[in-house]
Amino acid sequence: MASQKEARTPVDHVARLSGELRCQIPNEEEEREGGAAPEVATPGSEADGASADGLWKLPVEPAERRPECSRCSRPLKVCLCPFLPVHPLHISTNLYIIQHPAEESKVLRTVPLLAACLPQEKCKVKIGRRFSEERDPELTAVCQKSGTLILYPGAEATNLEEFIIDSPIYPSTIIIIDGTWSQAKDIFYKNSLFRVPKQVQLKTNISSQYVIRMQPTNNCLSTLECAAVALSILEKNNYIQEILLRPLQALCSFQLQHGAQIRLSKEHLLKSGLYPKPMPKNKRKLRKMELLMNSVKI
Ligand SMILES: [Zn+2]
Hints:
By secondary structure, the protein is of the alpha/beta class. It is built from 12 helices and 6 strands. Strands 2-1-5-3-6-4 form a 6-stranded parallel β-sheet, with helices on both faces. The chain is globular, with a radius of gyration of 21 Å. The N terminus is likely disordered. The structure holds zinc ion. Zinc ion binds next to loops.
C-alpha cells in the first residue's frame, strides 16, 4: 500500500479529492435538486400478506433518468448552460481525464461541466480502471510523448509552475485522474503507463469552492478545479480558471439554496473539534487524521 503517499500530501492536490469521505456527503436523494425520489414499490400491510401472484401486479419502477441537458449533462430543470462560455474556450493544451467508472454515475459530477467548456477534441474522458497498450493504444501513445504530464501529487511530483519555467519542451498534454483519493491512487499505481509522463502537482493556496462535497483538506480541489488551475498555468491565462469555475460556483450556490449544506473539510472539522465521528482505531487511519489535524507536511 502506498498509503504513506496519501498521508504525505495533506495539502497537495490530486485529481479528485473527495476522498474516502464520500459517505459523509448528503445522500444522493438530497442531491437530486428537489427532483422526486424514485418511487419504490413498497408493499403495504395488504401486500405483506399477498401471495406471489399479487406481487406481480405491483408497479415496476421504470429505469429512467430525468431528462438531461445534452451540453452540461445536468437535469434539464437545473441546466447550468447559462454559466458556461458561449463558445468553447480556445486552448492549445490537450486534456485527458482518466475517470474511475464509479465517478461516472455520481449525481454531482464536475467533469461534464469541464468538458462542456472546452473544445471536444481538447478534452477527452477515458473511463476505466485499467489501461494498457492493447486496450487503449491512443492513450499509450499520449503517455509516451515527451510533452505529456500527469497531475498526481507525491514526492516525485514537480510543482507545475516551476516545471514549465525550466522545461525544454513545453507541455502539450496533461492527464488528470478523476476519482476518490483511493481510486486515483489505484489507477495511478496499477497502470504502469501513467508513470511514464512527467509527474506534476499544483501548489496553490486556493481553497476548494466545491463546498457541497466534503474534501479531505481545505486545499483539496475537485477535478474541475484541478483542471482549471492546471490549464490556466499551462495556457498562461488566469481567465481560463475564472471561466471554468463559474459553472461550479453556480452549481454549489444552487445546491446551497436548495438545502445542501456546506461540507467543511475533514481538516477543518478535526481542527475545530467538530469532527462528528469517533477517531478511528486503525493505527494507519489514526495517523492520517493526526497529520490532517496538524497539517504536517512531510
Ligand atoms: Zn445545460
